[in-house]
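Whiteboard transcription, Tuesday session. T.W. wrote the structure tokens on the left side:
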């Protein structure tokens, strides 16, 4: 028998016939005429090269071949029914999902932290794993189902992934709250005389968007410290006279730091949420993305 040429409707008919052992009752359950079911039984006998069902005193009797088919056929049809059934409605209260998110430490503070309470309140049995963001690996990680959601800047976002803009970020000047040189909004000359700390995710960098903006004005600043993470930078700012130009959302709730508008235009950036097309219509993943967007 060639499974590729077999009509799956015939297998459903055989399953019902093996349950009812009666063509008339099988026809009623299948909503078909008795001659139609008899014709399908004839085709089944040809396909399986076996009589399958024999006349008996109280209906029909399965052959040994039909008896051997009964349980595997029932399980196969049940599995097929489950495979093609519409996805269940996602119930966050009962979910035990492990949400997997890739983000920088800044994005974790600006995005994961606001969403965490909403997600935990609605899905208390779920868990969350936050991974360090490695932009060159994002597409591969999503393709391998290692991540659910990635937070990424608008620049160089992989075009093959679904994306949603979450917000536009702007830069602010930050120093400790009693910094002696920040008690008044700084002029551009004053700004260039300050000593800066900056984040260099790849390590060792001393130039960023602020330096590009200054270069267009024929100016430059003095960056004396480069660090790989924002968390350490915030400690440096709170305990020294160094200052920094930071994304505003990172320092919204830092009363020990002074936040000012820089004396020059520094282009900001967009923050995107990325996910793989495979997860686009998954109910649980749709819910997660909705929670993240609603928390901002």
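and on the right, the sequence the group agreed on:
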């Amino acid at each position: 028998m060639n499974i590729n040429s077999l009509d799956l409707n015939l297998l459903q008919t055989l399953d019902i016939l093996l349950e009812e052992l009666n063509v008339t009752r099988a026809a009623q359950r299948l909503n078909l005429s008795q001659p139609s079911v008899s014709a399908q039984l004839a085709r089944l006998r040809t396909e399986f090269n076996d009589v399958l069902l024999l006349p008996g005193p109280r209906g029909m009797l399965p052959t040994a071949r039909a008896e051997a088919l009964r349980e595997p056929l029932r399980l196969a049809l049940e599995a097929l029914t489950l495979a093609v059934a519409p996805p269940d409605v996602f119930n966050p209260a009962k979910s035990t999902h492990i949400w997997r998110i890739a983000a920088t430490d800044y994005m974790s503070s600006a995005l994961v932290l606001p969403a965490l309470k909403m997600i935990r309140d609605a899905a208390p049995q779920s868990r969350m794993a936050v991974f360090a963001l490695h932009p060159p690996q994002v597409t591969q990680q999503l393709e391998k189902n290692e991540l659910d959601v990635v937070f990424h800047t608008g620049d160089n976002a992989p075009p093959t992934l679904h994306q949603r803009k979450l917000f536009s970020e702007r830069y602010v000047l930050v120093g400790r709250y009693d910094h002696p040189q920040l008690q008044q909004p700084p002029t551009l000359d004053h700004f260039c005389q300050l000593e800066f700390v900056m984040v260099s995710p790849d390590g060792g960098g001393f130039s960023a968007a602020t330096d590009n903006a200054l270069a267009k004005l024929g100016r430059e600043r003095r960056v004396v410290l480069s660090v790989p993470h924002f968390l350490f930078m915030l400690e440096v700012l709170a305990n020294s006279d160094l200052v920094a130009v930071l994304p505003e959302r990172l320092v919204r709730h830092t009363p020990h730091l002074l936040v000012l508008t820089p004396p020059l235009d520094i282009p900001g950036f967009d923050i995107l949420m990325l996910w793989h097309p495979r997860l686009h219509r998954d109910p649980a993943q749709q819910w997660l993305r909705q929670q993240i967007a609603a928390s901002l």
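Someone added at the bottom: The mean pLDDT is 94.
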